[in-house]
Amino acid sequence: MLSVHSLAGQVFLLQLAVVVLIVAATLVALVVQARRDIMADARHRTLTTAQAFANSPGIVSALKSAHPTAALQPHAQAARKAAGVDAIIVYGLNGITLTHSDPHQIGKRVIGPYAQAATGKPFTSTFQGSLGLSVVSAVPVRAPDGSVIAIVSVPVTVESVQHRVNRQLPVLFGGAATALVVAAGGSALVSRRLRRQTHGLGATEMTRMYEHHDAVLHAVREGVLIVGDGRRLLLANDEARRLLDLPTDAEQRRVTDLGLAEDLTALLVSDRPATDEVYLAGDRLLAVNKRLTAPHGPVGSVVTLRDTTELRIVAGRAEVARERLRLLYDAGLRIGTTLDVKRTAEELAEVAVPRFADIVTVELLDPVLRGEECSRAADGITELRRSAVAGLDTDRLLNPLGKLIRFVPDHPVSMALADGRPFLVGALNASGGWLAQDPERARRILEHGIHSLLVVPLRARGVVLGAVEFWRAKDSQPFEDEDVSFGEELAARAALCIDNARRYTREHTMAVTLQHSLLPRGLPEQSALDVAYRYLPAQAGVGGDWFDVIPLSGTRVALVVGDVVGHGLHAAATMGRLRTAVHNFAGLDLPVEELLVRLDELVAQIDAEEIAAAEDGQSMITGATCQYAVYDPTSGRLALATAGHPGPAVVRPDGTVDLLQLPVSPPLGLGAGLPVETAELTVPEGSRLVLFTDGLIEDRTRDLDAGLEALRHALSGPARTPEATCTAVVQAMLSDRPRDDIALLVARTCRLGPDQVAEWDVPRDPAAVGPVRAACARRLTEWGLEEVTFTAELVLSELITNAVRYGGEPIAVRLLRTVPLSGPGAGSLIFEVSDGSSTSPRLRRAKDTDEGGRGLFLVARLAERWGTRYTPTGKVIWAEQPLHGGAAPEAAGVGDILLDQWDDTAL
């Protein structure tokens, strides 16, 4: 832009020089004027101050007093400060100074041209005094009789005046700089636009370019029109004038006033582009191309015209071919928008009506609708199910949707399927096979005006899927041989989409079946949580979300939600593997953080196996998240850990909602051996724990924060059952077409009451086993469980004895009685013996010569379940005995159980 060789650069430099000169001259004028104004103000201010002080009340009496300086000096200093002058000097006619801003000058003789003031005439002058070069005004002080008794002089130094001028200079220079920047910016914008319009060319180059363009424009054998804003013709070359027979004054006239054909005029005044569109202009057939000049130029368009009169003969066929191509293009866009077989068939029928046929029907094989392969040969297919109809105004004319049609061998559909080629029936009233299919229906069809039929088989990848029937009625031309190839092309495109939908249906059915087999079929019986759940699959396909409710020892319950990234069989299979692993790890009573660490190692191992097994170098890496929580109803404690999963929500009994912020851990497979942090909290009884996958809160219409806020709003409010909570959350959060699976788990917490828990501390003394066993028996009697007292005493004796003999202190015994939240069960009785040793007992079959080793076997036979879980201070050995009838061995059978441990021959 600064180049002097371009027109824009020359204009910019000229404008910038003019602006600099104007700003400099203005700045000098402003400085001079400011100095002049300030000097005038100084003269006026000194004279006014001097007159005011000379005529002030009491000044004459002060001058005639014994000490005039003492009387006048304070007033002079105050007046000086108020007036903003440098000094107020009072001196007598003898020239002795009575007041001065500099106390050292008081009593000295004044030096200066004050004779005029002594004669009674005030004056203002500039001279060098004790304060330096100053502007001084002197006014006489008159006695009551009119005689001059003193003179008041008020000076303002030129330095003060210059200081005021200097204070205004930054403002003046700043304004000048701003004006210069604004003017330079405006000049730059003008020059930039000029440079863009001239493309950086100089005047000579622009002249030469215009001459060349003008020569080319009028020499080319193609008409060129330039239409500007307002639909006026800006330019027309010689060829355009000849082709359109334009008047000599056509330029600058409106296009609508040129007398062109109506359709061509509509194109020229419209805002749409055109490519090789054919228009009639007089006896000429013109191929018109139109392009809009905006946004690269001014508003308008450029139109080119070619004489194609020789194409008039084939214009009709070209129009038909163009329409057919457009229909094929539209078919490619409109057919196969979904992976649903029936909907794809409906799209085929809808796209062909009315542009190719008046009525279209599609018949498919039943296996295709179910997503299966058709194993029968094409010549043996006679049964098809009507899957789509378009173009009919009545449902009773043709066979209805969903009907299974059995075609006779001579029917056009049977003939087309047998030959594997389209079958054309130009006149339906002459087709014996078609008439024989259903004579009464055929009569109604002919009376309706349907007269021509084209049947095209639907084949994809060598497999017959069905057939499509194109019908023409009333004033439409019968199908001809030229229509057969187009119908075949249309059917081929649709058949491929139908086959894709069929394959998707098959894979989707398999994936759904696999997924349903891997998800929980129901909720296990437990007494700690009242649980409800929802699982909603995505519209896009089967995903890898899962949930679980896993009863643990000591009435504890584990809640699990997880999400495998992606959709399809791989995601569902991975979900099944992870869910199984979680069940296995939970059965080992691992802490929540250790369970996720083990699960992270498993996912990393799965990824390594996938990479090693990939033959093409492309493997499917498993991306998964998981949240694992364990609730203990005896203490109300909740331990949670998460691996890349959104935290849960806790709805307290009063209706307040807390969205827990758990310690951040990476998703499964990315932990790289890093530890997982655990969060622990105590939840009040009656609280609702809400665990979910990210599909519930993330959606294309809202971000994560908005989803969490919507979830908080859906959960807040009065207390609801878990089932009602699930319903409310799904209604508030679910979109019309969820793109991801949604797993929602709502659990209301329960607590074991004091009458359900009994605890005793046990000294490490074999003699302490009896008293503790007796105390347990009394507690069972209080609970009304006398029928299980004998079995309970045996189990407790063995567990306590092992803890005393092999364990470490502290040793404690706890009895838990559970009551199921629902169902007919009577609950269970849980025995727990804890000690300070981390050594776990092992079940084994004792040898014939062993005196011991049968106690744990006895516990395993008498209890329904037993196991060991480790604690930070040791371990807990537990056994669970159901309370419903027939679940526990009776006392009479205990002896048989013990005798089974010895061989009969050994005894």
TrEMBL record:
Q: Which PANTHER family match?
A: STAGE II SPORULATION PROTEIN E, STAGE II SPORULATION PROTEIN E-RELATED
Q: Where is the PPM-type phosphatase domain?
A: 530-749
Instruction: State the organism of origin.
Output: Streptomyces incarnatus
Q: Which SUPFAM superfamilies match?
A: ATPase domain of HSP90 chaperone/DNA topoisomerase II/histidine kinase (SSF55874), GAF domain-like (SSF55781), PP2C-like (SSF81606), Sensory domain-like (SSF103190)
Which UniProt keywords are present, listed alphabetically?
Cell membrane, Hydrolase, Kinase, Membrane, Transferase, Transmembrane, Transmembrane helix
Membrane-crossing segments per the record: 12-32, 169-190
Which named protein is this? Histidine kinase
- Membrane topology of this protein: Multi-pass membrane protein
Keyword Nucleotide-binding on entry = no
Where does the record place it? Answer: Cell membrane
| Molecular-function annotations in GO | kinase activity
Among its keywords, does the record have Hydrolase?
A: yes
Q: Main subcellular localization, coarse class?
A: membrane
Read off the InterPro entries from this record.
Bact_Sigma-Reg (IPR052016), GAF (IPR003018), GAF-like_dom_sf (IPR029016), HATPase_C_sf (IPR036890), HATPase_dom (IPR003594), PPM-type-like_dom_sf (IPR036457), PPM-type_phosphatase-like_dom (IPR001932), sCache_3 (IPR033463)
